[in-house]
Amino acid sequence: MSENLDVSGNSEQSAEESEVVTLTLNDVLELEDEMIQDAAAVLGASNDKACSYNDGYLKRQALYSCLTCIPEAKDDPEKGAGICLACSYHCHDGHELVELYTKRNFRCDCGNHKFNGTKCNLCHNKTELNDLNRYNQNFSGIYCVCHRPYPDSEDPLPDEMIQCIICEDWYHSRHLGVEIPSGPFAEMICGTCITKHEFLLHYDLSKTKTLEDEVKEEDSQICRKPQTKCENVGAKFWQDISWRKELCTCPDCMELYKKEDVLFLIDPEDPVHLYEEKGKAKAKEVVETHNRNFMNSLDRVQLVEAIAGYNDLKENLAEYLKKFVENKKVVKEEDIREFFDGMMARKKQKVSVPHFCH
Prior knowledge:
The protein is α+β, with helices and mostly antiparallel strands.
């Protein structure tokens, strides 16, 4: 949450104050839901109880790098290792973990030869190494062409990080060498990868295709293998993932993709947002099932208590925000966190009292 929230109710505001967003109860609930959705997008499709090793090289999964178990990875990413979500909970709890978001075609390393004798608590029979795994500087906890950590306490400039879909490194938007699109975009390939895979220069990376365009291309698909060398190319952005369908699939180009290790570009299940949608759908199903089972399990008294608890939340929040209105103060993120921390503390202090029917 980047903005401060104004609940002063004062209609006479300065230009600076008028830019402040008004907070409502729905805003708070929506922010909470947004945080849950963000977490579900990355973690929802992953198993948090069983190591993913036995599933082989997964097309995509949430991964972490443990710098407690392998401190030498800080200096050499190739010595690093990627662990799955379940192992981050059951084998590396309390360790210094680098969140890697998601990586493609990766098999969990937890407990293999890289861990110098430390075994995985969830899966004991593992090969010494996963030869098909690929490691980049992210496993050392650094990113971008500036080779800095994120978040970076020494960087005074706020900046978003964008992941390249080929090398899967993350880049500050100001270090991509091009202007970031003003509108939404689906995927980005960094300048280094564009230079390395020059066939991409022969595709229109920004134009939105019409149905007529797509029919014409299907009728007369041409091979677009690179003919010239390129230098100092900036990052490229796509508005959606349909550009992948334009990639030539003739035998020569397929051999080129294999040689350059980018066959995943023609895999319809590869895009990150498909993994995210799967995670959100799974999380939504779990939440809805839990809520339905919970409500069905309540007797009349418990159901009334649940409704009363929700009303109690609204009343307490309204009372909490009232002091900001009276003092014409701006509500900050830490204020909202303080409120919910207080609610949780009061909940823990309550003593259960038996109910008696008369």
